[in-house]
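RECORD TYPE: inverse folding
INPUT: structure tokens
STRUCTURE:
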């Protein structure tokens, strides 16, 4: 599981241990409607992934966060993604989110999360955006969309920002996840690679477990 640490009055840091692989992968789930999140979460967990981000683009995302946190507390770390406004962050945290992720630099969201004692992973892509994210009070930086620059882009960012904790997301797969970790990422965010086409709709949890196992094995 993840270990959350607090450094100073406002700075929140997350440390990802080198093992188990479950702590190095964030499953980024994006759906129009999540329904009952427990079977999917259990399939991911069985495959070796224990950190799950429910993006707020789904109309029942808050209910999914609350249900997953209630049913799987202590085994799965649950977070909220695509958070753009402070109110959304507060609502997600009230529902049980243990971390919050923004797709871009959103200082007011970071402020609200830190005030509520919850880590915020701030989205950024350029060096200027990484600096702005860290100035907002967090060292957790979601490099998004990672596919545009690949591992080399992350490695270049890690040079001038050695204190940042980079989590590339968007285009990360089982095939390239380890390359991002070698480039300096502390974890990776993976979405579509974990959900074979139609698997959720069919309830094919074995296929999702197998996909999760491939990703976890790759890191």
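DESIGNED SEQUENCE:
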């Amino acid at each position: 599981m993840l270990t959350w640490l607090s450094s100073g009055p406002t700075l929140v840091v997350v440390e990802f241990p080198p093992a188990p692989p479950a702590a190095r992968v964030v499953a980024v789930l994006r759906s129009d409607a999540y329904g009952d999140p427990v079977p999917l979460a259990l399939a991911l967990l069985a495959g070796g992934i224990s950190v799950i981000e429910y993006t707020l683009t789904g109309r029942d995302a808050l209910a999914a966060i609350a249900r997953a946190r209630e049913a799987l507390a202590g085994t799965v770390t649950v977070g909220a993604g695509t958070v753009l406004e402070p109110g959304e962050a507060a609502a997600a945290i009230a529902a049980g989110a243990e971390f919050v992720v923004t797709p871009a630099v959103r200082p007011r969201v970071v402020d609200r999360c830190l005030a509520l004692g919850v880590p915020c992973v701030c989205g950024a892509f350029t060096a200027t955006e990484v600096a702005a994210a860290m100035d907002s009070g967090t060292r957790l930086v979601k490099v998004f969309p990672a596919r545009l620059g690949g591992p080399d882009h992350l490695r270049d960012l890690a040079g001038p920002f050695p204190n940042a904790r980079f989590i590339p997301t968007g285009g990360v797969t089982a095939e390239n996840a380890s390359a991002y970790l070698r480039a300096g990422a502390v974890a990776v965010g993976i979405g579509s690679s974990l959900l074979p086409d139609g698997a959720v709709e069919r309830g094919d949890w074995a296929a999702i477990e197998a996909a999760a196992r491939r990703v976890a094995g790759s890191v």
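NOTES: The two ends are 15 Å apart (CA to CA).
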